[in-house]
Amino acid sequence: MGQKLLMKGNEAIAEAAIRAGCLHYFGYPITPQTEIAHYMAKKLPKVGGVFLQAESEVAAINMVYGAGSTGTRVMTSSSSPGISLKQEGLSYLAGSEVPAVVVNIVRGGPGLGGIQPAQSDYFQATKGGGHGDYKQIVLAPSSVQELYELTVEAFNLADRYRIVVMVMGDGILGQMMEVVEFRDKEPIERPDAPWATTGHGCERSQNVITSIHLSPAVLEKMNLSRLEKYKQIEEKECRYELFNDEDAEFFIVAYGTVARIAKSVIETARQEGLNVGLIRPVTLWPFPRKAIDKVMGTAKAFLTVEMSAGQMLEDVMLSVCGRKPVYFHGRMGGMVPAKEDILQKLREMKEQLG
Amino acid sequence: MAIIFQKPKALKDTSMHYCPGCTHGIAHRLVAEALDELEIEGRTIGIASVGCSYNSYDYFGCDMIQAPHGRAPAVATGVKRSKPDSIVFTYQGDGDLAAIGTGEIVHAAARGEKITVIFINNTIYGMTSGQMAPTTLLNQYSTTTPYGRIADLHGYPIKVCELLATLDGPAYIERASLADVKQIKNAKKAVKKAFQVQMAGLGFSMVELLSTCPTNWGLNPLESMNRVKDELVLHYPLGVFKGESLEV
Fold this sequence. Notes:
The structure holds two protein chains of two kinds.
Chain A: E1 4-8, H1 9-19, E2 24-27, H2 34-43, E3 50-53, H3 57-69, E4 74-78, H4 80-85, H5 87-96, E5 100-106, H6 122-127, E6 137-139, H7 144-161, E7 164-170, H8 171-175, E8 177-181, E9 208-209, H9 216-236, E10 240-243, E11 250-253, H10 256-271, E12 276-281, E13 283-285, H11 289-295, E14 301-306, H12 312-320, E15 326-330, H13 339-353
Parallel strand pairs in A: 2-3, 2-4, 4-5, 5-7, 6-7, 11-12, 11-14, 14-15
Antiparallel strand pairs in A: 1-8, 6-13, 10-12
Helix pairs in contact in A: 1-2, 1-7, 3-5, 10-13, 11-12
Chain B: H1 24-37, E1 44-48, E2 63-66, H2 72-82, E3 87-93, H3 94-100, H4 102-110, E4 116-121, H5 151-154, H6 160-164, E5 170-177, H7 181-199, E6 204-210, H8 214-217, H9 221-235, E7 239-242
Parallel strand pairs in B: 1-2, 1-3, 3-4, 4-6, 5-6
Antiparallel strand pairs in B: 5-7
Helix pairs in contact in B: 1-7, 3-4
């Protein structure tokens, strides 16, 4: 490992993107992620890149669509209301299979909501916020170090599968400062892009990037081929962390900032004689069902903790599939689950289940 | 036997789906002739929009991207900024460019993006079957103004060239017509010049082409051409709105 720097989460994302070879950024200001744009505006012109402040989120994601279509590594970033505006573009990117990285530093909603951290965009990110049958890979870092590493990885995944990869943090992760240890050389994988619209140079046949197929049979076939790709991603790209999982009776399932709180809950619970483990999904889509299966032997029950009304909860329930009880604790609107409240929930579970 | 007239190389040898009397075919040809004459097809990326010309990539031979409704100028911006040596054009109708895509066209023009916009103004939504467009004239009938466009209810038509010409970003803006041979010849010069402006890196260029829609106007092809000549030009005067003295 190389250089160590104390950095804000948002800045680490921007630095990671540049290190991953992303020299094109199109964005629109919105709290709490605007530092990404500031960093890009400062750095990109110095490394021969392009920073462009778009007139809207809608325009920004379409600029991403254009740049991505030429096989260029490209990124945009926003926060919840802005990500809603980008959904049209995300659906087109998916339908045309143009790779891109999109960062969502989530804030409380719905509507204009607030500017404090939340995880209430889980459904939108993982179930397809735009129209049509499509998926995007969703990565959920839980530290500034991981924001850096997963952002680099996001570009590799996007290119490997010609897919949109969303890096989804929350306002705490975007704003907090931590030490980041940068690698001397990034593990960059860049497959050729023979599909890209770069101008055929009178040397090859025409390339077309499109998502419209008016023949139902053709459109279904396109969807089926993408489903095949999604299946491969589900098989190969599930990522998660298990913490204190040996013999634990109760499992907290939490991602991002909340997973960090869960870890400190687990320390205290142990002192009370509560044996609690953590399942931390790192990919929210594909959701790491295997992690749930893995602990099913010892687990008596699961507790999903989120900064939402219970969104990942549904994926946990689908994965547990009635085999064990699933409990939930959530806070909303920028409120963060308190350690004591999670502990109390675990005590209640213990009491009910013995 | 000598060939004295043929399809431009930049157009594919295929029949088009456009209605009889529609001027999309002429507009496509003018773009393709410019690409041929300037020898730029190989480095050109076209952006198709949403409307009757959504599949213009079936007709143009250059690399093409199909953009979401109204977003072509933003997509073009992404292409041009990532491949500055390429030639990028959008091909958009009046609903696409002047209604749902107003934000994108104004800001691409204001930024002086080095792209070329081919703007087809036939005063109506063609593909979705004849609804009012932002360019629909007062008193004009459409499926959503069945009693005619009334200013009090539907507002006034937008003159896009005049609007964009108020900005500092555009280098060249011209309105031409496809209604007869003489006007088509002028339109051809305008389209070619728009690409030359881009090649010279001078800034944003746009040509508005007054066009027909016989199917949704309820007129035959000849009547449609006459409507462009007699009526449309009165509301949408032909001419150069920006960059008249520009030498390319």
